[in-house]
Fold:
Amino acid sequence: MQKFTTLTAPAAAYLKPNVDTDLVIRVERCSRTPRERLGDYAFEMARFTGGNGDSGAPDPAFPLNRPQFAGAGILVGGVNFGCGSSREMAVWAIAGMGFRCVIAPSFGEIFYGNCFQNGLLAIRLPQAVVEALGGALLAAASPVSLTVDLARQVVIAPGGAEHRFEIDPLRKTGLLEGLDPIGLTLRREAEIAAWQAADRARRPWIYNA
Amino acid sequence: MGMTLFDKVWDAHVIAELGGGAQLLHVDRHLIHELSSSRAFPDLAARGLKLRNPALTIGSTDHVVTTNPGRAGAAPWTIRMIDAMRAECAGAGVRYFDVGEDGSGILHVIGPELGFTLPGATVLCADSHTCTNGALGALAFGIGASELLHVLATQTIVQSKPGTLRANFTGSLPRGVYAKDMILALIGRVGAAGGSGYAVEYAGSAVRALEVEARMTLCNLSIELGAKIGMVAPDEKTYAYLQGRRLAPKGRDWDAALAHWQSLPGDADARFDREVGLDVSSLAPQITWGTSPEDVMDVDASIPDSPKRDALDYMGLAAGRPIAGTRVDRVFIGSCTNSRLSDLRIAAAVARSGKVAAHVEAWVVPGSIGVKRAAEAEGLHEVFLEAGFQWREPGCSLCVGANGELVAPQARCVSTSNRNFVGRQGPGARTHLASPAMAAAAALAGEIADVRDFPV
Ligand code: SF4
Structure:
């Protein structure tokens, strides 16, 4: 997995609450679009006129289409960002747009977990902080960069103000070192086998279905 | 201090502490469908990994399969996906319940129906509505595609333990009000992120009074409450539901399992991190007006003057007007929320009282082959067909439109599914979530109607 240590990048804001993963990537893109092309269809219902990434033009009313957000690497989102479906294509689509970090007051839980499986850092900050950061981005006429320092667990605003965030230590190490979760668990095969052997005696019906 | 049901089941599955609160949990039951597992076996092979415990995974086909009567007119790409699923399951030694075969259907319907889902078991699937299985007292949650690979390769999952929330439903349900109304009302009250960070246990006299299938409806919408996990403590109804099912424990296994299950309900002095309560005695039938499940209201109320202007615009609704009387184009009775035999019985009771309005296209899509056959055995299909509903083959269908079955742009659909998101039933489609009874009433009335005005 791709490592994540520090990132300084222009940031974009889309503060709508309850952005669901159906909105991030339509279900038909999940079955028929190669992973590398999902970014072209991210948010397509809101992002393109006619709601279609194949035939529509960028809709100027959609926040992420603002010129100052072109090339952004950090996405500032609203409450309950990524709620709904478990589709990991939503993370692939957001990564496909060029984002490596999403900051929001809260996330859909499955989406949140999926981010870390793909080297994307999801950061929870208090709602007031997110709204202030996002508001400043939306008000700016030219690109504004934020810095994210994962080791120190801070988001650094343009004026230098630091906002500390919490993160599960295992996820933090995973990103800092670019560790592969499956590889790590496979190292525990003996423990898994021993647990199952004991469990077979305890709950034979689980294994006899 | 006593332990909750959730704590007991979680703690019993911890294989290792991974530091910082993360734990390695054993996965007892894993289900795969053709959409979210479509890249899994090739990805597994590409990494040189193999399926660790084939017997603990089952598969079926629900998202892309056509639900046209007789499965007519399936798109070639859907056939290719299903062919791939069948071949991959055969290659990996996974029991696969093929289209139309006994046991096949929407995964969250067949897990319990087959007796694959069991109390006290961990049940995972790369699908957010896996929480449905918690109705049997299982610890069930949805995962992503990467975690799906992790489960296939290791039969485990890495998780941090969430907090606990008890949703206490008291009182008894009035006529025309169901489990769907209970959970929609709760989401309306605490919000679509209200359960975020918690495993929810549904408790209280109104939950104990629900039959097992209705408890599945309750648990199904846990994810719409923001929670990955929803559970109901197993009881005599749970055990009676499971006994004799195809994959449920038999003989001595049954006796041992039953003794274990009876130890699972939470201790009387167990404490929850958060408690919410709802007295259902005066609950009205619920219907959503917006584009999040939290945008919900009593059917006999006026559309709220919400700051969510974009949601009202998308839905083509004006604040301050009654929602009843809003003309509808489509009705969908189906999905892992409300496609079980008991749901179809409730809808059929309403359907018996009239005919589908001429301008409405109304579909009934059973959740599984088992449900379809059972409904046909008691003649429910004839009730629906005579009233003017389409009686279709099992699948996810209009819930998500992954198979190309869609609601047209700006068309209005009353749906028994779980998500009214923008574009969920098709680009521009307007979805109102409600119970099967309310959906059937809307089909007959041709508009959003109060099911209490119908014979229920
Ligand atoms: S019926 Fe709908 S919610 Fe349920 S699994 Fe299928 S698509 Fe998902």
